[in-house]
Amino acid sequence: MKTVVITGGTKGIGAEIARGFLSDGWYVIIAARNKSGLAEENHDNLKFQKMDVRVEADHQALVKTAFNWSGSLDCYINCAGFSQWSQIKNVDETFWNKMLDINLKGTFWGCKVAAEHLSSGGSIVNVSSLAGKRGSANNSVYCATKFGVNGITQALAKELGPKGIRVNAVCPVYVETPGLLEALKNPEAPPKGQDTAKYLKEFSESNAALERLPKGNEIAELCFYLSSSKASAITGQCINVDCGVLPQ
After folding, report:
1. 181: number of CA atoms within 13 Å, CB side?
2. Segment holding 145, helix H or strand E
3. Under a CB-based contact definition with an 8 Å cutoff, are residues 124 and 115 in contact?
4. What is the pLDDT of residue 164?
5. Active-site residue, from 76, 142, 174, 225
6. Extended beta strands in 11-117, E state
7. Contact at 8 Å (CB) between 171 and 132?
């Protein structure tokens, strides 16, 4: 049986990814700062571990748990992230450091530790964003982190390829999770104070080729595919899951 580690796996997109792997019988280790959401459910093949993605040693502890529990590590998914819009004039060092530390450094440490322990055939999947492909107003710091995640993904695909380790990223557009809906309430976010449900509906109808937004389980299905042998020739890719918002 295979084992996957998922940071930020207790809620939102991370929890959807975890459920996808659980349904296929994998050992699933989800990690976050607090035990909540999926971590409070009972599943035979699910284990929760408290961690801070900004700390490299916490990633090492996750891998140790994986080997002690199941004897293997087959996929490492960096999903933990932080999103908040801010005009550049309001960005201070605290905001900058929080965003960079969680989204970029946290992903990098996960990749580094996974690279040390994955064997040939193993896979790293980074949950990036469409914001890693194009800039948007009041979103400069978040975009910087996600462009960085995509850069790490592409560079490590080249570096780890000779070891048989594949590295890819998934780049969702808006996915309606509690975290996103809360972030969109910020007056500096795109809705600018208007109803978020109305904003998302209008956004999808005017921007998405399919006139809808992706669901969390659709992100999960791509992550699962990228972890499988069916994607054995795919590495270094940052794949949009956006219902056609940004055709490439």
Report:
1. 9
2. helix 140-160
3. yes
4. 98
5. 142
6. 27-32, 46-50, 75-78
7. yes
Evaluated on CA atoms 193, 195, 200, 202, the torsion sign reads: negative
Active site residue 199: no
Name the CA radius of gyration of the chain, rounded. Answer: 17
pLDDT the model gives residue 220? 98
Query: 128: which residues sit within 8 A by CB, 6+ positions away?
Result: 146, 149, 150, 153, 169, 170, 171, 238
For the stretch 148-184, pLDDT in tens is 999 999 999 999 999 999 999 999 999 999 999 999 9
Spatial separation of the C-alpha atoms in residues 11 and 143, rounded to whole Å: 22
Residue 55's identity, in one-letter code, is V
> Chain-centre distance of CA 67, in angstroms?
22
Contacts of 106 (CB under 8 A, 6+ apart): 7, 53, 54, 78, 80, 81
Cβ count within 10 A of residue 60: 16
* Residue among 209, 170, 142, 174 at smallest CA distance from 6: 170
Query: Residue 80 region, left (φ>0) first, then alpha (ψ -120 to 50), else beta?
Result: beta
Read off the pLDDT band of 234 (50, 70, 90): very high
- Tell me, yes or no, if the pTM score tops 0.90: yes
pLDDT tens readout for residues 178-203? 999 999 999 999 999 989 999 999 99
The alpha helices in 184-215, defined as continuous H runs, are: 196-207
